[in-house]
């Protein structure tokens, strides 16, 4: 890079956008609160200028950016929900770079894009997730949505656990407000993912009881030092581990303090911004956008056409469906490149 400040169209969730300013970038937010379709011209129109890079930060929506193979700037995808959306690796191939939240999915994206274009970017805790003084109100607390339609496995597990742990409380609301009021905070990973709740609970100074997980959990933290673990989906083991923690307040406090230190040391927004900035600088220095434009990937165009046809058929928004269909036709040669 030449040292000048580079502009970023930051599309999707805000995450650690503001921390990118400390890394020599000028991000401008294009938030997404629902399905949308944007080409490069749409982005320029909204910003009022052409950015040096476009970063899509995952909102678990239908693909919001089209024509990525033609974008005249660096593109990157911050992928979080790859455990939910099987089409993500194909979509990621449209981008110059990809940062993947789940460690065990990195290889699949690396096979799609190439090892040097993919980085592991784990979850983190936002600034407002901090400890606070509060009266203890709950023995064992789960904070989050519990709905038999949208979270059936979570709902079933909590039902089984509630029969074994009478002190279990389930609440919805602000993590920083609720978690400090619990002796032990429970995490559930319905799809086996290393989720944000792990980092957020530790950042709130909570004694965390979380499932034994893959996706790098044991690379980032040490079970038994930063939190306690139970066998995933094993309500009896979870109840037993919760009783052990509740019977040992000193251990709870030690886990909570060690977990908070670990988050503050390596898992705050500034840490993830630093990692993404390094990936973007690597892509800019390598001229990935210029290389992409100079050597069109015809095989990728054929595969993407199927993706756009799928969304044209399954989108319940006629305007978005029409945009997806137009993109599919363009890739088939029915429109000018």
UniProtKB/TrEMBL annotation:
<dbReference type="InterPro" id="IPR055259">
    <property type="entry name" value="YkvP/CgeB_Glyco_trans-like"/>
</dbReference>
<keyword id="KW-0808">Transferase</keyword>
<dbReference type="GO" id="GO:0016740">
    <property type="term" value="F:transferase activity"/>
</dbReference>
<protein>
    <submittedName>
        <fullName>Glycosyl transferases group 1</fullName>
    </submittedName>
</protein>
<dbReference type="Pfam" id="PF13524">
    <property type="entry name" value="Glyco_trans_1_2"/>
</dbReference>
<feature type="domain" description="Spore protein YkvP/CgeB glycosyl transferase-like">
    <location>
        <begin position="170"/>
        <end position="277"/>
    </location>
</feature>
């Amino acid at each position: 890079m030449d040292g000048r400040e580079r502009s970023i169209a930051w599309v999707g969730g805000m995450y650690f956008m503001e921390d990118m300013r400390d890394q020599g970038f000028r991000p401008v937010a294009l938030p997404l609160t629902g399905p949308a379709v944007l080409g490069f011209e749409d982005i320029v129109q909204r910003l009022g200028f052409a950015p040096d890079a476009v970063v899509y930060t995952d909102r678990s929506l239908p693909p919001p950016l089209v024509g990525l193979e033609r974008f005249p700037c660096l593109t990157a995808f911050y992928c979080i929900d790859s455990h939910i959306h099987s089409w993500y690796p194909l979509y990621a191939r449209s981008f110059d770079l990809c940062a993947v939240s789940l460690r065990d999915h990195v290889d699949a994206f690396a096979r799609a894009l190439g090892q040097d274009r993919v980085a592991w970017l784990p979850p983190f805790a936002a600034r407002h997730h901090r400890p606070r003084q509060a009266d203890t109100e709950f023995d064992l607390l789960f904070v989050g949505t519990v709905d038999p339609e949208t979270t059936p496995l979570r709902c079933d597990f909590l039902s089984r656990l509630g029969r074994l742990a009478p002190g279990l409380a389930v609440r919805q609301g602000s993590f920083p407000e609720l978690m400090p009021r619990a002796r032990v905070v429970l995490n559930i990973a319905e799809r086996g993912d290393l989720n944000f709740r792990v980092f957020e609970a530790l950042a709130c100074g909570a004694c965390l009881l979380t499932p034994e997980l893959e996706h790098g959990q044991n690379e980032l933290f040490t079970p038994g030092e930063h939190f306690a673990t139970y066998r995933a989906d094993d309500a009896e083991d979870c109840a037993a581990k919760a009783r052990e923690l509740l019977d040992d307040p000193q251990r709870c406090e030690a886990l909570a303090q060690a977990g908070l230190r670990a988050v503050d040391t390596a898992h705050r927004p500034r840490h993830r911004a630093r990692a993404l900035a390094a990936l973007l600088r690597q892509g800019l220095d390598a001229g990935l956008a210029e290389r992409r434009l100079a050597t069109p990937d015809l095989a990728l165009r054929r595969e993407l056409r199927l993706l756009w046809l799928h969304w044209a058929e399954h989108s319940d928004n006629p305007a978005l469906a029409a945009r997806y269909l137009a993109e599919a036709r363009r890739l088939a040669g029915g429109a000018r490149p």
